[in-house]
Amino acid sequence: MKTYDLPAEVISVTKYLDVFITLFFLFEILVRFIAYENKKHFFKNGWNFFDTLVVVISLIPIQNSEIALLARLVRIFRVPRMVSAFPELRILINSLIKALPQLGYVVLLMFIIFYIYAAIGSFLFAEINLVLWENIAISMLTLFRIMTFEDWTDIQYETMEVYPSSWIFCLTFIFFTAFAFLNIVIGIVVSVMEEEHAQAKIAARDGEPSKAELQKKISELESHVASLSATLKSKGP
User: Fold this and answer.
1) What ranges do the domains of the chain cover?
2) Residue 188 confidence (pLDDT) above 80
3) Among 60, 95, 123, 185, who pairs with 193 as Cys (CB 3.0-4.6 Å)?
4) What values do phi and psi take at 129, rounded to 5?
5) Phi, psi of 4, rounded to the nearest 5 degrees
6) For residue 198, what are the contacts with CB-CB under 8 A and spacing of at least 6?
7) What is the pLDDT of residues 88-115, one digit of tens each?
């Protein structure tokens, strides 16, 4: 709201709202800490640590302070802090974080492909258009433009005027990057999300009797019923 030109009365309301939100978050994190069974492990949970950090920084007075700008920027993270209130969003964020190591290798391989095609492009097409192919760095930016389909046909037709077969260069690059690598990234993220959902289901079942335990209890109950029935029959009417 402060990014708009608002009356002074509205600005004063936002200050009260800021104090209310800070106190509400403080109360909520204290309740969670008190209710936590093993308090020593409270901060081992990444979400608990993140929430506590945001709340603590929000309590720092920012008026006439040297870190006023930094504190205001950090308070913006009170918005993603609401993610911890929704299990499905937590699973999504956890999946993205756990997928980063695998995605790093995909990014590295993509960089190699970019480098190879940029070297070829700057060698063949620099004389056609220096703005797009002057060196490897600029060529990589041009290839990124091609990968995102930003007027890539204009670039292709320009090179085809000199090299009629240059369409192979563009199409193979699009196939490797926009299609193949994109599907690899999606596959990695989906695989990690499935693992996170499975772990969440297991965690949700903790404390509940397993199927084997339920079957054992049912068998014991049936044996007790059978024994009681046999006892009643032996006594007769």
Assistant:
1) 8-82, 90-201, 207-235
2) yes
3) 95
4) -155, 100
5) -105, 160
6) none
7) 777 777 788 888 888 888 889 889 999 9
The pLDDT of residue 122: 92
Q: Say if residue 101 is exposed, middle or buried (CB neighbours under 10 Å; 0-12, 13-18, 19+).
A: exposed
pLDDT confidence bin for 78, thresholds 50/70/90:
low
pLDDT at 120: 93
Residue 65, pLDDT > 60, answer no
| Residue in the structure block whose two tokens are 């084997």 | 212
The architecture that CATH gives domain 90-201 is Orthogonal Bundle (1.10)
